[in-house]
Amino acid sequence: MMTCRQIEKELSAYIDGELADAARAEVRMHLDACDRCRRHLAQLEQLGNGVARLPQLAPPPGFAADVRRKISGNDTQRSWMDVVFRPVWLKVPVEAVAVVAVAVGVMFLAQHQQKRQACICYTTANEVSAASATLEARKDTDALSQLSERREVADTAPAPSGAPEPVAPASPAAVKRALALKAEPAGRPLERGADASQMTAGGHAGRASGTDATATLALVDNQQRMLIERETVLVAAVNPSLAEERVRELLNPLRGAVVEVKKGGPMPHQMRVRVPSALVAKFKEQLAEINADPRLRPGLVRSRQLAAVATDEKKMTEKLEKPEEEPMTELEIQIVEPLKP
Amino acid sequence: MESVSSTDRELVAQAQGGDDDAFAVLVRRHQGRAVNVAYQLLRNEEDAVEVAQDAFVRMYRSLGGFRGECEFTTWLHQIVVNLARNKRRWWWRHGRERTESLDVPVESGDGEVNRQMAAASDPADVELGKLEFVQLLERRMAELPQNLREVLVLRNVEALRYEEIAAVLQCSVGTVKSRIARARDALRAAMKDEWP
């Protein structure tokens, strides 16, 4: 004999006529004797009738025509898509190949990007030569004499031949000119050359000496290496301000300096610091010690993008007049929250 | 030329052979069912019509793969239910809840009017008490989880048997039985103030 609780579970199927004969007979027998279950049944029936009477929606006029239009409107695309994707046996392999192809493409681009980044300095060196050639073409005696003087000093190093050399002799104005050439659209080389020579004559004529040229050379070399070695380093810290203070403390004995600090807003707390290239490894080791999260080891997380490097080239021209004493490497430190376990 | 009296299977076979008019007959024959099921699941006129049209477009494009293992209507229900689920997900992702109720007035050029529905009810049912009951039921239905609403619509609106519902939802008959029972219990509990 079934209880009311068991019967209640069967009532829904009972009113839908989905019970087997034996179960149906048992429910009916129970209902004959139980007012409570009969009320329950009546409520379920009322609900079922109510759902069947809910407001309905009829198709709008022109429904079939719209379907036909949608079908014919996309028919070309359909046939192409069908050829590629409809057979199930072909669908999975095609998609797998597509995924692999995309992955290989991304890897290739990443490698290519790194190579291009490394080549930036060579490009700059070549453009320096191009700039001096333009100056010679203009026969601007003042600028040309400076450039020649500097070349003589610089040419004690092996001259670039065919394959690009990492370092090329150049005056600050020539470098500036080279970068300006890169930024400007082609078509006005002579006028630009004249501008460059005027800038050189006005800005650097009084400082044209062998020592100055060597310093400039070192600077170019230094700046180029800086571009290549520039990295982003992650440091995990619960208190970003305290971490920033610790980073500053680390920089002092290493002859490093803070270039820029960005904090606030949606971006993580960022510091741009400059450290002597020879001491970068030591600096990173010390950074690891202030790290609050042992799983996050400071290191090369991602290389700079080319667009960012191009921006740095512009900054480089602005800083040419303040040569630094030793090769420096610039690091961008992002102070982030420790990863949650 | 296919006859309107042809069975669905015959029309599908003709459509598979490239006869677009046969498919048009299928669309006209089942458009009311498709639109209404979509509307019961979404409670939004515009999206219901779009879902129903997209269902037919999808069927047309998949005609080659239809092997007649189920009825045409089962196939149609499957696609409409799936597209309605997708539409709800789209609403959710875009932070929209487009469910609308019969008693919510809508703006028109002439001012506020109630939504025009195809009246399936017997005029005798449009007594005040029953109308209120149905309107309340509609709101409670909209609050049900999607899977419970689906089984109730397929059972009480489309009058499908449990076996057919199981074929549409691609689950077991036991699952359909328990879902329908749960859906009705949930509605019964939600409407408890309405019972004498």
How large is the count of helical segments of chain A? 13
Number of helices of chain B: 8
What best-fitting shape of chain A do the alpha-carbon axes yield? elongated
User: Portion of residues in helices of chain A?
Assistant: 55-70%
Describe the main β-sheet of chain A briefly: 5 strands, mixed
**Biggest pleated sheet of chain B:** 2 strands, antiparallel
Mean pLDDT of chain B: 82
Structural class of chain A: alpha+beta
Largest interface: A-B, 34 and 54 residues
CATH topology of the largest domain in chain B: Rna Polymerase Sigma Factor, Chain: A
What is the CATH level 1 assignment of the largest domain in chain B? Mainly Alpha
Low-pLDDT residue intervals, each spanning 5 or more residues of chain A = 75-81, 118-229, 298-314, 316-324
How many distinct beta strands of chain B? Answer: 2
N→C terminal distance of chain A = 56 Å
Question: What do these coordinates show?
Answer:
The complex is a heterodimer of chains A (341) and B (196). Chain A contains 13 helices and five strands. Chain A has 341 residues and is of the alpha+beta class. The radius of gyration of chain A is 38 Å and the shape is elongated. Chain B has two domains: 1-96, Rna Polymerase Sigma Factor, Chain: A; 122-196, Arc Repressor Mutant, subunit A (Orthogonal Bundle), CATH 1.10.10.10. Chain B contains eight helices and two strands; from the N terminus they run H-H-H-H-E-E-H-H-H-H. In chain B, helix 1 (8-16) crosses helix 2 (20-42). The N and C termini of chain B lie far apart (58 Å). The interface between A and B is large, with 34 and 54 residues.
